[in-house]
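Lecture 7 notes: from sequence to structure.

We start with a single chain of 155 residues. Read the sequence below before looking at the structure.
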Amino acid sequence: MPTGPNRLRSGGERIDEHGQPGTGAWGPFAGVSYRFEQGSWLAFGSLSGRLRTENGAGYRYGRALLWSVHGQYFPAKRLALDLGLDGRHAAADEAGGEAVVNTGGTVLSASPGVYLKVLGEAWLFVRGQLPFLKRFRGEQDQLPSVVTGVQYQLL
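Now the structure, written as tokens:
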């Protein structure tokens, strides 16, 4: 669904697309995933694609292909150590039907993480992404990032 406002202005000028809090367009995605558990080990992989529609300002984010392959080790019942590879390839964004400079490209990241089971099936986690291969169109960069959150497992 269209996400967040995409018409913010500063000093009377419209803020750049990548500074907007939302895309203002549809971005459906679909994918497949597989999970395998054996004893104190778990492995999973996923592959998904995302399409984008044009927003009200005539801007379209590039379609993207995303993938992950991870392994987890459970040294204790309530602790999981995760190591994986995450990747993304995105086409260039478009504005007025033309490719936008400095958008699109490929990045591969090593993705370590720690999961702690805190209550029932709720897990707290911290995961990083450490980019090691970057092939972007134009001048861009992807810095290391950290994500924390809560995950609830239904099965």
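Residues 29-152 form one domain. Keep this in mind for problem set 3.
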